[in-house]
Amino acid sequence: MHRENSRPAARYGLIAVAVLFLALFLVLPLAAVFGEALSKGATAFGSAVTEPDALAAIRLTLLVAGISVPLNIVFGIAAAWAIAKFDFPGKSLLISFIDLPFSVSPVVAGLIYVLLFGAQGWLGPWLRAHDIEIIFAVPGILLATIFVTFPFVARELIPLMSEQGRDDEEASLSLGASGFQTFWRVTLPNIRWGLLYGVLLCNARAMGEFGAVSVVSGHLRGITNTMPLHVEILYNEYNFVAAFAVASLLALLALVTLVLKSIVEWRFDYHRGGAGH
Amino acid sequence: MSSPLQMPAPGLAAETRGGSRRSQSIIPGFGLTMGLTIAWLSLIVLIPLSTVFIKSAGMGWAEFVAAGLSPRAIAAYKVSFGTAFVAAIINAIFGLVTAWVLVRYQFPGKRIVNALVDLPFALPTAVAGIALTAIYAGNGWVGQYLEPLGIAVAYNPIGITVALIFIGLPFIVRSVEPVLEDMSAEVEEAALSLGARPWQIFFRIILPAILPALLTGFALAFARGVGEYGSVIFIAGNMPFESEIAPLLIVTQLEQYNYAAATAIATVMLVASFAMLLLINLIQAWSRKRMDG
Fold it and tell me: What transmembrane ranges does the database entry give (chain B) (predicted)?
């Protein structure tokens, strides 16, 4: 253990500063969400989260996450397999490209699809002629969500699989297993906690994305409103209790994500292991 | 640096680069996985992103400047970059304290504190935005005590900074943490036994060792803050020239069907974020060189 005994005053002072800072900037907002949601009682809360537009928003959010997360899993595993198990020129550049969506403003992420598929966009006239709606419709919301969640699974798996090397796979293959058998029996068990970790963060972002989705959604109540967009509409209508009620469902999702993520870290000693070091 | 960073740090390159391997491999699937990666990356990220630059290039310089560098746009960049910078500075200080406490000390509830640090990654930005507004508005949880003192947080750049502090905190903590963990306490103990004062130990030993990680975290928090939208717009007030952030100006221009202006502003922001990305990579290359030498 480190020098815990050296300066108790400094230690308690620093712990107090950190805990107070986190309480003010992280715990208080979280408490505010639940406090405001329940400020008019459980009945108001219940009717806010069960009215038809709220249910439509919940359904759309689940649909968008249900499609974008599996797509990102497939892509993330493929990218990590190619990058970690093989050597090729331009590898760092490819990794930088995969990370790119993290450094793009969510609003710009929405804008690029409007420029591509919007009424005035490059493919706009063609899409209109063929009666295909992307912008201000569900496909646009899906595309924007896939863009912002693009790196999560891949960037979790690439360092993990690189570190694990390819000895296990090579042993399996030389013993006569097929490529798919090797992947299912050897690689997947090796990376499962990293994969779960990436999926948790990917899912939280997919369900909670606001900026990118807001640009392409068109905000049609009950049709193209995801839960975060529904929160915004209710809030702008001064319907604060309903806004915070729907927001509290998203806050619950965040808490569940954090708990599961912590379990992966503690139980399976995945990642930095900051807690028990 | 054996454990992978969970954060959006482009430091992955460092970890995959190491170790020379046989170029002949019996592992199958290179063509399939590489093809899938390139195709998906091009369709979702590269081709759509290129539309911004192609549309900008087609505008002509004068039109681009008029739209992308208009007085209102420049005021918005100042608000976005200024508030993101201040928030990243505050996060660098308190994030460093938090990382230090989490790595060096044992205390009850430490696991909860550790999990809580990642809340901004898990909580949707719009939820953070309305919650912070509920706290800091004039009649809010905290705002009602600040208002009699003449301090208004919500609906001005201070509110934007508060939202960006919330958003950026984990970037600093999670960047600095692994480096602090790898640092042995022996050097500090040696310095202490030689009569160094705590502030000397901090500035001469600890800070130089963690500086690259701290700068990386700072740059990540800053870059995220510049582009942030959801948590900011509720608390910002959104007054042009005062509290209007650049991403909001893009949305406003889009809503008025002014695609050229939206694209020009987006181009300026993309160039800024690519510059930040380059800077982060340079910091990490510098850090690697320092570690090796």
Answer: 30-54, 74-103, 115-137, 149-173, 201-223, 259-283
Contact B277 A259 (CB under 8 A): no
Give the mutation candidate from B16, B21, B42, B136 for the A interface (greatest A CB count, under 10 A): B16
Q: Give how many domains chain B has, as a whole number.
A: 2
Residues A87-134 pLDDT 10s: 999 998 999 899 999 989 999 999 999 999 998 888 999 999 999 999
Same domain? For B34 and B128 the reply is: no
Query: What distances in angstroms separate CA B130 from CA A71, A229, B220, one per listed residue?
Result: 31, 12, 24
Structure tokens at B177: 């943490």
**Chain B residues close to A235, C-beta within 8 Å:** 130, 234
ipTM at complex level = 0.91
User: Domain spanning A43-275: which superfamily?
Assistant: MetI-like (1.10.3720.10)
The chain A residue lying nearest B189, using CA atoms, is A3
- Minimal Cβ distance to A86: which of B25, B44, B101: B25
**Cα dihedral across residues B266, B270, B83, B102: positive or negative:** positive
Residue whose entry in the numeric block shows the structure tokens 């996060």: B91
**CB distance A218 to A137 below 8 Å:** yes
Locate the chain A residue with the closest alpha carbon to B1: A272
Nearest Cβ partner of B122 from A25, A247, A254? A254
Q: How far is B147 from chain A (nearest CA, A)?
A: 17
Domain CATH for B284: 1.10.3720.10
Tell me if B158 is assigned to some domain: yes
User: Which chain B residues touch A7 with a CB distance below 8 Å?
Assistant: 198
Q: Where are the domains of chain A?
A: 1-38, 43-275
Q: Which amino acid makes up residue B291? A: M
* A26 touches B at CB < 8 Å: yes
Sequence-separated (6 or more) residues with CB below 8 Å from residue B244: B72, B75, B76, B79, B236, B238, B252
Cα distances (Å, whole numbers) of residue B245 to A105, A118, B6, B262: 12, 24, 28, 13
Contact B105 A4 (CB under 8 A): yes
| Structural domain that includes position B48 | 25-57
Handedness of CA A162, A167, A171, A173 (dihedral sign): positive
Residues of chain A positioned with their CB less than 8 A from the CB of B3? 271-273
